[in-house]
Structure of Coenzyme F420 hydrogenase:
Amino acid sequence: MGGEDKIAMVGTPCQIIAATLMEKYSSQLKRNFPIDIKIGLFCMENFSYEYLKKLLHSYGIKFRDVVSCRIEGSNAYFHLINKDVVSIPLSTLRKSMRKSCKICMDFTSELADISVGSVGSPKGWSTVIIRSEKGLKLVEKAKKAKYIETKMLDADRLNLIEKLAKIKKNKNLEEIKNRERVARPVMYWRIMPEEIFLNEVENYQFKDLKGDVIDVGACVLCGACFFSCPEDIIKIEDRKPEINGKCPPGCNACYIACPRSYVPDCIVNHEDAYSALGNYIEIISARSPFFKGQDGGVVTALLACALSEKIVNKVLIVDKDPEKPWKPLPILTDKIDDVVKASGTKYSVCPIFKALKE
Ligand SMILES: Cc1cc2nc3c(=O)[nH]c(=O)nc-3n(C[C@H](O)[C@H](O)[C@H](O)COP(=O)(O)OP(=O)(O)OC[C@H]3O[C@@H](n4cnc5c(N)ncnc54)[C@H](O)[C@@H]3O)c2cc1C
Ligand code: SF4
Ligand code: SF4
Ligand code: SF4
């Protein structure tokens, strides 16, 4: 990553919260944070790669034979190389859901510049929530340059998105209350004004992150701690982040950057939790006339447009690991071909910010 980089990223709501924290507190982190545009995905839940692999195995499916996976209604549909489609009830799939997703209060990436999801739009289209002027400019540019075509979203479909967001928030708020009751703190959901936040976290280090987040099943495996660590002593592979070294006095970077440790209320606004979708300028449906994607190929088209129009010079995306089929692999690239190759949803978590450092 060079000092002059301007990067567009795509990520799940928890990853977008981490990006927002690292952007706002870059002076405390003593590190330039180069993400200029945040494209967030809708996300009801995510799954553990190893559990998902075992579950598919019990249905006689090998990950390497899966061409795509779509979640529609109450089932997940795995499309296989031999053209078979195997359906698994979402209730079964949810047994491999990550614990951290059960306390997640964001369905539509409320802190992104643009949020994109499938629910609310017809097949082959994506739902697009434009939230910032920067996001609006990119969507307008992509439309003008014919990377995407758009249409209005009708009221029934908007109601459906709001309903799903509220279902997630209400259910997960109950889980947060339950965990707090049995002394498993949910730090990021404790109201914390900014002044108190900066004071509170002043002396917190990796051991506190471990106790407050990692050991209580709240880590979303985003890699923000790895990226922020000035000593490069955090290891993050398939599971939990671990430390290999000693933290110097005065460093609290990993604790500040983590989206599941304390988060000040100027970033995660608790009142917004009850407005299903957060703040936005406009909601539309869109699709790309030429890029194939999970839904309308809109994320791929927006990122390709941002690169070719030189709005950014690199993009942070999630591809598939060539060694392990369907295992998400974060990459930082300036090539549109890589963006096209990375289209489609991989239903497992991935330490996306790792790729910013490597
Ligand atoms: C874990 C997960 C859960 C989701 N749950 C919902 C849901 O409940 N309801 C809903 O409406 N939509 C959900 N989505 C979003 C949906 O699957 C599509 O990603 C979205 O509609 C965009 O489609 P597209 O065709 O425009 O994107 P595409 O053009 O196909 O681009 C998709 C982009 O997503 C990125 N990506 C893929 N996998 C991951 C990952 N694991 N983590 C971070 N980034 C990734 C890739 O970098 C790629 O650039 C979910 C996405 C993910 C990753
Ligand atoms: S915590 Fe889970 S449900 Fe929430 S955004 Fe992250 S992956 Fe999605
Ligand atoms: S040095 Fe220690 S406290 Fe500082 S970021 Fe790294 S792990 Fe965290
Ligand atoms: S502990 Fe690290 S990987 Fe886990 S949520 Fe916090 S910043 Fe992300």
The pocket of iron/sulfur cluster (ligand 4) is lined by residues 209, 213-214, 219-225, 236, 241, 257-260 (CB under 6 Å). The radius of gyration is 20 Å. The first strand starts at residue 7 and ends at 11.
